[in-house]
Amino acid sequence: MGSRYSIGACGLTALLLTACTQEPRLPEYELTGAVMGTTFTVKLIDPADTVDRNELGRLISERLGEIEQRFSTYRPSSELSLLNDALTTDWIPVSAELCSVVESALSISRWTNGAFDITVGPLVLLWGFGPGGDRTSPPGEELVAEARSSVGYEKLVTDCSRPAVRKKLPGVQMDLSAFVKGYAVDEVAALLDEWGVGNYLAEIGGELRVTGHNSVEQPWAIAVEKPDVGSRSVQSVVHIADKGMATSGDYRNFFEHDGVRYSHTIDPATGRPVTHNAAAVTVISDTSAEADALATALLVMGPDDGMRFAREAKIAAFFLLRLDPGIEERVTPEFEALLN
Fold first, then answer.
1. Of 276, 315, 314, nearest in space to 294 by CA
2. DSSP readout, 278-329?
3. Assuming Cys at both sites, which of 12, 71, 92, 295 could form a disulfide with 180, CB separation 3.0 to 4.6 Å?
4. Is 121 contained in some domain?
5. How far is CA 276 from CA 76, 128, 206, 210, 321, in A?
6. To 5 degrees, how large is the angle CA 191–CA 195–CA 200?
7. Which domain holds residue 137?
8. Total structural domains within the chain
9. How confident is the model at residue 24 (pLDDT cuts 50, 70, 90)?
10. Measuring CA to CA, which residue among 128, 124, 248 is closest to residue 176?
């Protein structure tokens, strides 16, 4: 099913603080639609009269539909699903776009020593967070061990000069969810750049990218959510321009069994959902795709190893830790400089 879009003005997303005020404002237009099981929002600030917003909205929706058809694990006919179904260790011809995305994701896997790993697909399915359906209880250790045997980014090789991908084990299954949503945001941003839109926000399911300024000619004010299961409220606010931003957390997609919460964030090293007290990690980077992948990697690493890695790599990272009785914030210097 293709994406749908609509046009409005002075809208509000969960992470964007631009409520209508009495301050002088530049014209602001909003394009919204559904894609990847979530929604997208694009805010245009004072676009040129030559920008046909209806046509731009159609092209954004069309491009997002292409990305979903290529990378969705929920569509049996997607290119990624067909690649996952290919039980071979031979080189498999793929599109240039899929090869490029896999290669970029693997570079982050190497950088993070496998904390971010796109071959985690079998574990995602096993724990009920993929297209196979939900779980209400954790799988047994034998099943976890079996799924782990085909997980490992080093089991995947790309040759984008062909372009082609090769699995070192036939059972390797890719899940690009923690990269492609951010990648899709970057692709929308590239389209807006081509159209000469100088000031905008592009957001898909909470991952976003901003360029220029907002409607009151200030850096974009973006809220980081409190990690609350039953509500949506603001934990803190950052002001950014020309950056991508993404959050990975355990409070939206999980199941509980015998009083234990099992989140969708799987540690490839253990084959199980993370168990530390980091509730969410937000990352700001040059691209939304990198922010998306790094937020997942840091959440997998946890509050100590993740913070150490982020500081050494000079990543703008914001950790929210669950402590009794509340939430503790930990930030790197690069992120602290952006806080309100």
1. 315
2. EEEEEEEESSHHHHHHHHHHHHHH-HHHHHHHHHHHT-EEEEEEE-SSSEEE
3. 71
4. yes
5. 34, 20, 23, 31, 9
6. 70
7. 84-174
8. 1
9. low
10. 124
**In this structure, are strands 272-273 and 266-267 parallel, antiparallel, or unpaired?**
antiparallel
Amino acid letter, residue 279: A
E strands present in 117-219: 156-159, 164-167, 200-204, 207-211
Q: Give domain status of residue 19, yes or no.
A: no
DSSP string across 228-276: -SS---EEEEEEESSEEEEEEESSSSEEEETTEEEES-EETTTTEE--S
Task: Give the model confidence (pLDDT) of 61-111 as tens digits.
Answer: 999 999 999 999 999 999 999 999 999 999 999 999 999 999 999 999 999
Distance CA 140, CA 233 (A): 36
Q: Tens of pLDDT along 303-325?
A: 999 999 999 999 999 999 999 88
Q: Which residues of 165-190 are buried (b: 16+ CB within 10 A; e: fewer)?
A: bbbeeebbbbbbbbbbbbbbbbbbbe
- Residue 241: inside a domain: no
HSE toward the beta carbon, residue 106, CA cutoff 13 A: 21
Q: What tens digit of pLDDT does each residue of 229-249 get? A: 777 889 999 999 999 999 998
With beta carbons less than 8 A apart as the criterion, state whether 72 and 80 touch. yes
Q: What is the enclosing helix (H) or strand (E) of 185?
A: helix 177-194
Q: Give the pLDDT confidence score for residue 47 in this predicted structure.
A: 93
Q: How many residues does the chain have?
A: 340
CATH number for the domain harbouring residue 99: 1.10.3980.10
Instruction: Please say whether the beta carbons of 236 and 280 come within 8 A.
Output: no
Q: What secondary structure letter does DSSP report for 160?
A: T
Q: Whose CA is closest to 264, among 249, 246, 282, 280?
A: 249
pTM here is 0.91
Query: What letter represents residue 29's amino acid?
Result: Y
